Amino acid sequence: MITRLLVANRGEIARRVFRTCRDLGIETVAVHSDADAHMPFVAEADVAVRLPGSTPAQTYLRGELVIEAARRTGADAIHPGYGFGSENADFARAVLAAGLVWVGPAPESIERMGSKIEAKKLMDAAGVPVLGNADADTATEADLPLLVKASAGGGGRGMRIVRSLDRLAAEVAAAGAEAASAFGDGTVFVEPYVEDGRHIEVQVLGTAEGTVVLGERDCSVQRRHQKVIEEAPAPGLPAATRTALHAAAKAAAEAIDYRGAGTVEFLYDPARDRFYFLEMNTRLQVEHPVTEAVHGVDLVALQVAVAEGRTPALEVGPPHGHAIEVRLYAEDPAAGYQPQSGVITAFDIPGVSAEFSGPQGFGVRLDSGVGAGDEIGTFYDAMIAKVIVHAPTREQALRQLAGTLRRARLHGLRTNRDLLVELLGHPRVVEGTMSTTFLDTAELAALEPGVPGTVVQQASALFAATVAWVEHLAARRTVQRRMSRGWRNVHADVRRTTFEVAGTEVEVGWVTEAGRYRLVDGYGEVDGVTAAAVTRTAAGWRVVVERDGLTTPYDVAIAGDGADVRLDVDGAGIHLALRKVPRFVDPATQVAAGSLLAPMPGSVVVVHTEVGDVVAEGQPLLVMEAMKMQHTVAAPCAGAVVALPASAGQQVEAGTVLAVVEAEGAPSDATEQGETA
Questions:
Q1: For a tag on the chain, would you pick the N or C end, based on fewer CB atoms within 10 A?
Q2: Measuring CA to CA, which residue among 416, 529, 524, 413 is closest to residue 463?
Q3: Cβ-Cβ contacts under 8 Å for 46 (sequence gap 6 or more)
């Protein structure tokens, strides 16, 4: 029997495993990097051990340090979670060699499925349908499109779609570099790419008495090959196809005598009603909560039971209701899903009835590794939380989950919340006809840069922010507290307040009449907007906006001071993150024209240019790495590189000048400007 278990992971999955351990009476041990020292999962463990350093390679991927932490704390078992060393056969062997229980499959099973190249051969021999491999050296136009894929790991890292042969070699190299960084193995392979396929995966549990199939999940809504929405059961599958998928997954698991929880992933072609083996994840999946919901199981508890040599008594019936999960990320969908970092200043998901476990009956479940006041850093994945709704029907689950997200309070950094809400109501998602390429081609408002919401919503929210800001200033007065709001000793009929929203400065004109605020100069020609009530709340201000006899409440939170004041406005189903633009600008904050700024904190991996080089518009100049993904910084225009402050290996903050490109025909003093930027 396991008495003390160490989780060789971090964040949300560590908290998830700890929750089941508490239910089972098992003590817990956390390992953590320096960057994670103050994260919630560390505080929740019975014992925590520091792993010096911040990057995965320095900490969570150091198997010898993790095993030593288990020895020091008296742990008798290690659970790997997902990612990091969860599918590393050598790590599993080292754990077993140290006399510890490995809560996962045998190292031999991991090894046989760890190479996607060899796994496909094994599955073909077992009678499981597979896609053929392509040869990168002999591929022709007829083979396009192709998919370059990392042999190790997952999560979309080390994957590239190639639609032009002249890009194949470069994409193979880029995928290999990304895979090596994320998984320590840069091996990649190439296979045909199926357009408009669906990603269907089957949950299995291997025991000494055979393999149990716990239904399937649909994970077709993806971006950059990372799952965004997952659900169980998969909608719209023919009954015969569902049965065949389950049988194929069972055959795959039994071909390697699999033990424990695992997932067999398939690419389903609905046009031909055919499916193909993609890979087997020999670990717990991120999306396991939807299976837990519809089948009423605890997959972590089942993993522990199998690791202890027991065969759980499982009676698997048809799924109960429908469960949908979304991954809430710190990213900007309108900027190519650029990861975001920073402190979460507010984090409130309404209506949550359970955390890290299925709710009693139907309801909302939240699995999150962070909370208000925690930081999303640059060393790890940008996922904030998983929000799961279990409802009697798929239609109700979609609507309830969208409503929950719409009312959520998420402040401090950009997220994909608005995209998730829009996707949950998109016709293709509602109809269950989405594919793995759907999100790449969909025309969605959340993918367009700009201010979210309708013009009326924008005007009302900006007006509410203005009223809250003026009231906030008045409340801070230490003298002349009875003076009217916005008073000036020189009469001005219209007062103006300027905010920056989505990179654009917006001016709001307003007046006070008989003590009541009114929007003037109509933002977007919107008029007739007044403030019906203004009250102070624990989180800031509530402004009730009235227009055409209809009132809408907006909550405004204000943080910062001086030249760095930020306001978050929530109401009417939208959220605006604003920066108060100071009346006077400090010249020292300006940068030279042509400056390429770091889009996020991270490290410079490669510098492709030198000072004096003539470059073309769009030419890659540098490659940055942040949150385990690589990002190319390209020339904004044709011209010459006149300054290059960045160097390979350098850690930079967001907004750091990396290079300066002088456009063709620009003034000759650009070099001097770049040096002083």
A1: N
A2: 529
A3: 4, 27, 28, 29
Tell me whether residue 283 is one of the annotated catalytic residues: yes
Find the mean pLDDT for residues 372-388.
94
Catalytic residue among 15, 259, 283, 365: 283
Distance of CA 323 to the CA centre of its chain: 19
What gap in Å lies between CA 381 and CA 367, rounded to an integer? 15
602-607 and 651-652 strand pairing = antiparallel
H-state helical runs in 533-574 = none
Which residues are registered as beta bridge partners of 142? none
pLDDT at 485 over 70: no
DSSP 432-465: T---TTHHHH---GGGSSS--S-HHHHHHHHHHH
Q: Tell me which of 38-47, 230-239, 448-457 is least confident.
A: 448-457
Token digits of residue 114: 């760890």
Residue 544, strand partner residues:
533, 553
Helix (H), strand (E) at residue 383: strand 383-391
**Can you tell me the distance from the alpha carbon of 1 to that of 19, in angstroms, rounded to the nearest whole number?**
18
Contact between 42 and 30 (Cβ < 8 Å): yes
Quick one: tokens of 173?
């190299």
Which band of pLDDT confidence, cut at 50, 70 and 90, is reported for residue 588?
low
Rounded distance between C-alpha atoms, residue 286 and residue 264, angstroms = 14
Cα 361 to Cα 390: distance, rounded to the nearest angstrom:
8
| SS3 state at 596 | strand
Distance, CA of 277 to CA of 128 (rounded, Å): 7
Closest CA to 70 of 27, 17, 21, 16: 27
Residue 675 has pLDDT above 50, yes or no: no
Using DSSP bridges, classify how beta strands 47-50 and 27-32 pair: parallel, antiparallel or unpaired.
parallel
In this prediction, residue 601 carries a pLDDT of 77
- Going by C-alpha positions, the residue among 267, 238, 261, 359 that lies closest to residue 312 is 261
User: Which amino acid makes up residue 436?
Assistant: T
